[in-house]
From TrEMBL:
<comment type="function">
    <text>Major role in the synthesis of nucleoside triphosphates other than ATP.</text>
</comment>
<feature type="binding site">
    <location>
        <position position="10"/>
    </location>
    <ligand>
        <name>ATP</name>
    </ligand>
</feature>
<feature type="binding site">
    <location>
        <position position="85"/>
    </location>
    <ligand>
        <name>ATP</name>
    </ligand>
</feature>
<feature type="domain" description="Nucleoside diphosphate kinase-like">
    <location>
        <begin position="2"/>
        <end position="139"/>
    </location>
</feature>
<protein>
    <recommendedName>
        <fullName>Nucleoside diphosphate kinase B</fullName>
    </recommendedName>
</protein>
<comment type="similarity">
    <text>Belongs to the NDK family.</text>
</comment>
<feature type="binding site">
    <location>
        <position position="115"/>
    </location>
    <ligand>
        <name>ATP</name>
    </ligand>
</feature>
<feature type="active site" description="Pros-phosphohistidine intermediate">
    <location>
        <position position="118"/>
    </location>
</feature>
<feature type="binding site">
    <location>
        <position position="91"/>
    </location>
    <ligand>
        <name>ATP</name>
    </ligand>
</feature>
<feature type="binding site">
    <location>
        <position position="105"/>
    </location>
    <ligand>
        <name>ATP</name>
    </ligand>
</feature>
<feature type="binding site">
    <location>
        <position position="57"/>
    </location>
    <ligand>
        <name>ATP</name>
    </ligand>
</feature>
């Protein structure tokens, strides 16, 4: 069965790496079923990352995510959540370079905060974050059609 995940191209990667990342997404067999470019407000960034609220880097994370436009995408494919996480690689690009040198973060991220892309960590988060970013406009029909 097809699955959806939420992907973000973060502000640090938008200028130089956006096209490469989109190419990689399409080349990996994902359908981009929704897409939106926007600068997140502080409130939106705080809500989006509410699970990280107690982390020492939360403030920096919110500032970073608001500093310029993000590209937000719904990616649809079988096993999309896990597949997108594999393509992104580990959160920390230093680790990514060791364990997954072909991953997006190994290639494009500069450090653990400015790590170029985001992906939902599980199916429940994916649904919640997609609804948060895009509302309820996407029906599930496409997911059950085949
Ligand atoms: P992301 O996968 O979007 O989820 C949470 C984000 O917090 C993460 O990518 C990084 O941008 C950031 N992050 C995670 N761990 C750290 C850390 N130790 N120091 C700074 N930023 C971090």
């Amino acid at each position: 069965p097809k699955q959806k995940t939420l992907a973000l191209i973060k502000p640090d990667a938008m200028e130089e790496h956006r096209d490469n990342i989109l190419q990689e997404i399409r080349g990996s067999g994902f359908s981009v079923t929704q897409l939106k470019e926007a600068v997140l407000s502080r409130d939106m960034a705080e809500e989006f990352y509410k699970e990280q609220r107690e982390k020492p880097f939360f403030k920096q994370l919110v500032e970073f995510m608001c500093r310029g436009p993000c590209l937000m995408l719904v990616l649809t494919k079988e096993n999309a959540v896990e597949e997108w996480r594999l393509i992104m690689g580990p959160t920390d690009p230093e680790q990514a370079k060791e364990t997954s040198p072909d991953s997006l973060r190994a290639r494009f991220a500069s450090d653990i905060l400015h790590n170029s892309v985001h992906g939902s960590s599980n199916e429940q988060h994916a649904e919640e974050k997609i609804r948060f970013i895009f509302g309820d406009i996407c029906s599930d029909a496409e997911l059950t059609a085949d």
